Amino acid sequence: KRHLVSAADLTRDDALLILDTAEELAQLSGRAVKKLPTLRGRTVVNLFFEDSTRTKTSFEVAEKRLSADVINFSAKGSSVSKGESLKDTALTLQAMGADAVVIRHHASGAPARLAQSDWLRGSVINAGDGTHEHPTQALLDAFTMRRHLNPGNGRDLAGRRITIVGDVLHSRVARSNVHLLTTLGAEVTFVAPPTLMPIGIENWPCQVSYDLDAVLPKTDALMMLRVQRERMNAAFFPTEREYSRRYGMDGIRMAQLPEHAIVMHPGPMVRGMEITAEVADSPRCTVVEQVANGVSVRMAVLYLLLGGAVFADNAEPARTE
Ligand code: CP
To answer: Is the ipTM, as predicted for this complex, more than 0.85?
Structure first.
């Protein structure tokens, strides 16, 4: 495969290869091998049309650990603000020799448009497009779940019960996760207010519930989602108090989870609305660990798309420096 646009495009073997590669890379980092020469001489452009803290930074760290030349492009401050199109932006980057473009865009489908076009010759990696998908987030989430829920080195997530709670309607994280987690054999349940559950959810490969308290005792990993006010008409904002009462995660609800269960959040968190500080700062909450895992997973994706035949053949990782 040349691009990573959607978690739905990943077969079970693809997903396991990325997760296993990320595990090997994480172990190298743990052994103080901070840099690999794999992408030396290759140029990766981080093309961000929407704000980001975690994804943008961790892609940059991942690219630098693989010795790529990194160009950070933010729509703010670029000629996009003067009306330049995605096509002309892509052609400009191609003219500068981009081998890969990591793109975040407010429009669902923008990364697919780039991947299908002849504007760029390199790989396209989706870093979040509108309400569509965020595949590397789902991969780092699966990586985190696998570490916590499969201590016996099981490779997939067969039979694990994952509950995803909150603004499913606007969540690209939920969409990528439902594809990837079911590909890996997990059972996914969405819990959301009826106004924040997508129309047609009955056709998704998941269970649906409106009762968080009933689902908690049957959950191995609980993923809280942010309410994305920036994608909503103000008339549809849920009130913070009502939302927290029915769908927020607090210490009382955390006690209803099985002892082994973890609490996840892709970030950014809105403390007080979907998650209390007591939960966010508890040892069961993996939000910071997810960020660290994101670097290994993004290294694996870049490695396999741009330089990865060596790894894909299960040989030793490239020479270290
Ligand atoms: N989880 C995530 O995508 O966070 P950022 O928006 O900060 O990149």
So the answer is: yes
